[in-house]
Structures are given as structure tokens and as C-alpha cells.
Amino acid sequence: ELVDLTIYMIDVAQGGDIPRKKAPAIRKSDLLIINKVDLATHVNVDLDLMKEDVIQARNGLPYIFCEMNKSKGIEKISDFLIQNGGLWVLLFKIIMIVEFSYTQKNRQNTL
């Protein structure tokens, strides 16, 4: 594949049976995001059953149930991207640059 990470997103309003169908993206993506869990009661989706189907379909791969409009789950997604997407390297470099710049500025002020 020509990508570093694959993230597949579905929402509860698409139907509770989506994970049960075990499409390749459900089974193989690096992260599965199930959004709009707050709509489950409005679209007659049993979240417990959907979670069981996700667990079975994912076979140990990560997944996140979230409500992005209420920022629930965003931190977990960010953590996943930082840990698995190499973003921690970028963050480390940014921190090092900022720290170096700060140190240089303070050194010049003391001279």
C-alpha cells in the first residue's frame, strides 16, 4: 500500500449491521472510527450489539466509538495518530526547535 495509515469512518446512522458485514475496510484499516453514537436511539441501533460486531470484525485492531460534534473521542483519535502515524516525531522536532530558540534567545539576553 502507498499510505502510512488507513482510517475508516462510519456513523451509526448508516446502520448497526455495517460492522457485521465485515467489509475489507472494516476488517483491515489501521483504525476504525464509529461516529455519531448519540444517534443510536434515533435510528434503532443497539450500540452493545454493534460493539460486539466491531470486536469480532476487527480481530484485535483498534476502533473508537465517538461523538465528534461533542468532541468525545477526539483525544483518542489524536493519541492514535501521534503514536501510530509518526506525528510524535514531528512533535518532538517542533519541541526541540522551540526549546533551542528559547535557549538561544535567553543566552543572547544574558550577554
Can you describe this structure in just a few lines?
With 111 residues, this protein is α/β, with parallel strands linked by helices. The protein is 47% helix and 12% strand. It has a three-stranded parallel sheet with strand order 1-2-3, sandwiched between helices.
Question: How would you characterize the overall build of this protein?
Answer:
By secondary structure, the protein is α/β, with parallel strands linked by helices. A three-stranded parallel beta sheet has the order 1-2-3, sandwiched between helices. The protein is elongated and about 65 Å long.
H-E string: EHEHEHH
What is the rounded Rg?
20 Å
Reading side by side through the largest sheet, how are the strands ordered? 1-2-3
Low-confidence stretches: none
| Strand fraction | 5-15%
Largest sheet descriptor: 3 strands, parallel
Tally of separate helices: 4
Mean pLDDT comes to 87
Helix content: 40-55%
Globally, the shape reads elongated
How far from one another are the termini?
A: 54 Å
Label the structural class: alpha/beta
Q: Please count the beta strands (DSSP E, at least 2 residues each).
A: 3
